[in-house]
Design a protein that fits this description.
alpha/beta
């Protein structure tokens, strides 16, 4: 637990990507009118969840008006509504609501990290920014004893494939990203894929609630 907390402190203090840090600070200073009374977080967003989790979820990056505002992964935006509702249904969260960092939400046997810990303009971190943040993904994988890794979206899937290759964990040939894709890893570990619960996917019907719920039922089965 101490290493998890220490890692989060290092993540929050990171200043490696000037473009991202400037963007996060600008969003925090200007604010959206609906959140004018908020004091925005405006810093790199730390990992969230149980340090001893067996399920580690890997997202893309904080949302400018979501986690960049609240300071907690997937909190305060539509993607988070989908994620925590599904986690609650599957028994990985004590509640389905995620509005602020002090709303009582607690993850159960689950932790959440991201490919990039700062909110990027247009939700698109550059290749160099992803590379800068890779140290935090690697350190998170080292700190959390996960058995199932859930990649939300293709960028998270590719990021996790890089990490599994680096560790010589690939027990079978890696497949292309697809929703519901599953890859067996060494040490009785698994890499599971899902479409990201972004509005681009949920509003268009590419990702439905039953589809997303099935992912977490599959994660629960793999842990069993």
């Amino acid at each position: 637990m101490d290493s998890f907390r220490a890692l989060n402190k290092r993540i929050v203090a990171c200043e490696m990507c000037p473009r991202l840090r400037a963007h996060c600070r600008q969003v925090a200073a200007e604010k959206r009118r609906a959140f004018a009374d908020w004091t925005y977080w405006g810093k790199p967003v730390p990992n969230f969840g149980e340090p001893a989790a067996r399920l580690l979820i890997v997202g893309l990056a904080p949302a400018a008006q979501g986690a960049n505002r609240t300071g907690r992964m997937f909190t305060g935006d539509r993607s988070g509504e989908w994620l925590y509702r599904a986690l609650h249904k599957a028994g990985f969260a004590n509640q389905a609501v995620a509005n602020s960092a002090d709303d009582g939400l607690r993850l159960i046997d689950c932790a959440i990290t991201a490919i990039a810990h700062c909110a990027p303009p247009d939700n698109k971190p550059t290749t160099a920014e992803i590379a800068n943040c890779r140290q935090w993904l690697a350190a998170t994988i080292d700190a959390v004893p996960a058995k199932v890794y859930l990649a939300l979206g293709q960028i998270a899937w590719l990021g996790m494939l890089r990490e599994t290759r680096q560790r010589n964990w690939l027990a079978e040939r890696a497949a292309k990203f697809q929703h519901g894709g599953l890859l067996r890893l060494a040490g009785e570990r698994w890499l599971l894929a899902s479409y990201h619960p972004s509005q681009q996917n949920t509003f268009t019907g590419r990702l439905s609630e039953p589809m997303f719920d099935q992912i977490f039922r599959r994660a629960r089965e793999l842990l069993s």
